[in-house]
Amino acid sequence: MQRRSLSAVIGGGWSGLWQKAKAGAHSAAVENRFVQAFVAKKWSLLLIVMAFLLGRAMILEQLSPFALAFIAVIYFTRRDILHWVGIAAFAGSLLSLSSNTGYLVTEIIVFLLIQKALEKFERSDLSLAPLLVFSSTLLVQLFAELVVSNLSWYTLMMVSVEALLSLVLTLIFIQAIPVFTLTRKNYHLKHEEIICLIILLASVMTGTVSWVVGPITVEHVLSRYLILLFALVGGAPFGASVGVITGLILSLANSNAVYQMSLLAFSGMLAGLLKDGNRLAVAFGMLLGSSILAFYMGSGADVINSTWESLAAVALFLLTPRSLILTLAKYVPGTQENLKSQQDYAKRVRDVTAGRVEQFSEVFRQLARSFKQLTTDDAVSRKEEEVGHFMNAVAQKACDSCWKKSQCWDQKFYQTYTYMTDMMTQIEMKESMTKKNIPPEWRKVCIRTDQVLDVMKQQYGLYKNDLHWKKQIMDSRHLVADQLSGVSQVMEDLAKEIKREGQELFIQEEQIRNALEELGLSIHTIDIISLDEGNIEIEIIHQYTKGFDECRKIIAPLLSEIIGENVAVMREEMHARGEGYSTVVFGSAKEYEVETGVAGAAKGGDLFSGDSFSTVELGNGKYAVALSDGMGNGERARAESQTALSILQQLLQSGMDEKLAIKSLNSVLMLRSSDEMYATVDMALIDMYNANTTFMKIGSTPSFIKRGTEVISISANNLPVGILSEIDVDLVSIPLQSGDILVMMTDGIYDAPGHAVNKEMWMKRMIQEIDTTMPQDFADCLLERIFRHHHGEIQDDMTVVVARVEKRQPEWATFRWPGITRMERPKTVS
Length: 830
Prior knowledge:
Blueprint: H1 2-11, H2 15-56, H3 66-77, H4 82-94, H5 101-120, H6 129-147, H7 153-176, H8 191-205, E1 212-213, E2 216-217, H9 218-234, H10 236-253, H11 259-273, H12 279-297, H13 300-319, H14 322-331, H15 336-375, H16 379-399, H17 405-411, H18 413-429, H19 440-445, H20 449-501, H21 506-518, E3 523-532, E4 535-543, H22 550-563, E5 567-574, E6 581-588, E7 592-601, E8 611-617, E9 622-630, H23 635-653, H24 658-672, E10 679-687, E11 692-698, E12 703-707, E13 710-714, E14 731-735, E15 741-745, H25 747-750, H26 759-768, H27 775-789, E16 798-807
Antiparallel strand pairs: 1-2, 3-4, 4-6, 5-6, 7-16, 8-9, 9-10, 10-11, 11-14, 12-13, 12-15, 15-16
EC number: 3.1.3.16
GO molecular function, one term: protein serine/threonine phosphatase activity
InterPro entries: Bact_Sigma-Reg, PPM-type-like_dom_sf, PPM-type_phosphatase-like_dom, SpoII_E, SpoIIE_N
């Protein structure tokens, strides 16, 4: 990212700044590599120490399944330190309570031989490591027992148990070791992976069995220290789990420490219950738990020794750097650090995505500018160039074979060029010019006047045709430039939306959660997607009671009071397990509601009508009522009108400007077919928040608004889409009022009274006489009157769409709860 920003600086000409930044970037890269190398060496040293302890670790005083499993996983994950890990495991086995060095060395050799053989056949993979460890352990142990002639059912069972333990431990180490090898990039571990990590650490601690410092046993100190760490990070569940696992593994390593399992589990649970305090509270919980069970299970000396061990663990715990605890917390699911790391990662992904979208937006914007530059070059120079080509073509065809060519074009160039230009002007003014219309002075100059006239008329026809197609190309470029600009604007809005979703809204979510829980509601999760005015979107998962409808009666009114804007239930989904949790999406309640009704009939009572209609909410707070009349009648006209409405609806839903959407629709319809197919478009976009309505009328009949006893007419004079390559779009904006009835119709209804009658006045009177305010009844009544006027004959496709705008009445009033304050909305991302 740094180099990319510096390249922009280079493009601006800041060469000096570039040199400084380059040097700074190089030093930062060197420093970063040094830090990474230091961290890698630190983790490598830790893995070598773990190998030493695992080489010494044993179970039941005779089984040692840890070392080979650890070395096998290191072979696949960190082969660069494999020899150091092998030496450390060998040294640990030399210091073990039972001499097993020969077995370990032989098992490692057998494992490497089998692995090299598999690599020859390209079958080597980490997933085969458990089977390789199992096979190596089983073969070596069986061969050793056969050599000493000591094979019995007991020894066979113990050999099988050790081989199976090696297989299981290999599977566990595969999950846990990547945490220490820097191959795990994301800070998110599953609960199973956390358990595998705890088993690995507990297995390492078994390597300290029989290490004593005065009255203190080292493995007891380390196990309690591990419990303190996980209890502080994960709470009581993790504290108890770590206690059970470490106690179990330590009791397997030392049969005299069976009581440690219950002591550690109880201590971890008490320590985890006090995690909301601080380190001292967690330490106090562990001390309390270990002391209680030590008094119950042991003698006075055991109690004193256990207390010293607990105090040593607490001392190590208090000296532990905060950075280590925060790093561990990032891996544990459910912790605030883990959630924050995931949110930081999601925020980085959103920022990168928004940046990419902005780059694409800028690319489309630059393309639009380049197309516009191509079409806005100097028109005068282009005109002179085209005239020059025209003159050259005429001179080549008419004058090349003339014996006076040198006299006309070399000696009298300007005079000849002027006469040719004058003749071209006359032909342009009068294409039917004949030889009789040639000026007398031109006949005196040119001996091939008739031939020049014929060639010039022929070339002018080609020139005129060329101008026509050049204009078509220019118009197409203009349209492409406008469409690219519209796409760029849509992508820029999308980038802003992505950035807006990345805002931190934790404070607002907690405020809503506290307010709802004070009312006794059981809230599982709250996700605030948007808090923009008029575009609120909040998703809540809560526990519901069948028949109570808490989301509409309690949650929505309370959210309206907290946010300061009417909030309603947009979508509700019950979970499949009967009475339980439901997911409810709350959004901004619209200030106005639109109710629609449609009535129509096909020409002659046919099955298919050429008219199409659409009533849909666009998703941006606007409601679209649209009507289209395809050319002619029948199925093909219906397909044309449906296509026009579908394309226009999708363009508007994508966020494209209304005028640009109409122009894009016009170009699509022109390119779909070479036939003369066009369609009228009559659309009303009603803003659901303030009832402002924008009318787009493309070749359609007038629409009418009935407001009480008054009828208002809305009309425009645009041609239908699909006829001309360039159309003028006139948008008419009118604010509607509550109770207004909008009537939109096709020409089959509007032309019903005939040509001898003032159609607009006749339709106004017809609409005034209809008393009903229900949209469907209104549409049916108007269509019925048209039928009666024509005595039941249907002369053309007829469709009428009626929409009534009403002020929305909230289903439940807001209420104020004591202690609840108005929410402070975050600043909108610009």
